[in-house]
Specification:
288 residues; 10 helices; alpha/beta
């Protein structure tokens, strides 16, 4: 979402630096966005006349791409605090011929250019558990939602991100048995009960949170490992830093990590896949 979120290694400016390589992550998030849009649409149809959607923390446009594919005439505003992400978003929209879409660089904690009660559908995918001051973000999402409108929030379903972190931890333990797994995401926004309580606190009603599991195929093992170690993604950099803080070299972990992925994610025919947990939450802003 933002460059001000946990930055990566010392010379890593954050999310802008990983924008060009972020398509690797979208092989996981696009199917989840499709499921997320189904849930939101079932509660509050996105093809209703006058519907206006907000993609908060849009990244390169995974959610917007799903929205525009299914609802080509839907009005969408998208924001992200990382200029590199907005640049990639705009390039994607141009190549796909999106219409009625506006994107701008904006901090989710202060959506100052957006008026109160603007959107019928306020959505965010896989941003809030990584962001600073997530409670401010939730309150801003409530402010810009129209009375009677819906909020939809997809977030990580495990503060330790065991999907990738378990393999990382096992690899590190091979080199240093005293290594302990590190927490990656804010548990306030990656545990179901906490997400429910925080959306209620932000002012939303009728909050429902669903846990979902998706298998992420990683057919190109070397490509995934390269992304973990050199993709610049601040999530992955949290893992890398945890080893460097112990005085270790991250490249020493690489062969062990590669072998763990091969051994534990293999599905028997040369392909590999890991199980990713996500929370999908919805709520309503009370009608006036």
């Amino acid at each position: 979402m933002a460059d001000s979120i946990s930055a990566g290694l010392p010379n890593d400016p954050g999310w802008t630096s990983c924008a060009a390589k972020y398509s690797t992550v979208e092989t996981m998030t696009i199917p989840l966005c499709e499921q997320f849009v189904d849930i939101v649409h079932d509660i509050s149809p996105l093809d209703t006349p006058g519907a206006r959607a907000f993609d908060n923390g849009c990244g390169q446009g995974a959610l917007t791409s799903v929205l525009k594919e299914r609802f080509p005439h839907l009005s969408v505003m998208a924001t992200d605090a990382a200029p590199g992400m907005i640049s990639m978003f705009n390039s994607r929209g141009k190549s796909l011929g999106w219409s009625n879409v506006h994107a701008e660089v904006l901090d989710a904690r202060n959506l100052e250019s957006i008026a109160n009660d603007t959107f019928t559908h306020t959505m965010s995918t896989f941003m809030i558990a990584l962001a600073p001051d997530p409670h401010l973000i939730a309150k801003e999402m409530h402010r810009v939602t129209k009375p009677g409108g819906i909020v939809g929030l997809a977030t990580f379903g495990d503060p330790y991100f065991r999907f990738c972190n378990d393999a990382w931890t096992r690899a590190c333990i091979q080199l240093d048995p005293s290594y302990q797994q590190v927490q990656v995401f804010d548990p306030s926004w990656s545990l179901s009960q906490n997400v429910t309580e925080n959306l209620l606190e932000a002012g939303f009603t009728d909050v429902k949170v669903r846990m979902t599991h998706k298998e992420w195929p990683v057919d190109l093992n070397d490509q995934f490992v390269e992304y973990v170690f050199n993709g610049g993604n601040p999530v992955m950099c949290t893992l890398l830093r945890s080893w460097e803080k112990r005085g270790g070299r991250v490249e020493d972990v690489r062969p062990c990590f590669t072998q763990v992925i091969k051994d534990e994610w293999g599905v028997g025919d040369g392909r590999k896949q890991g199980t990713f947990e996500a929370l999908m939450a919805t709520g309503k802003k009370a009608a006036v």
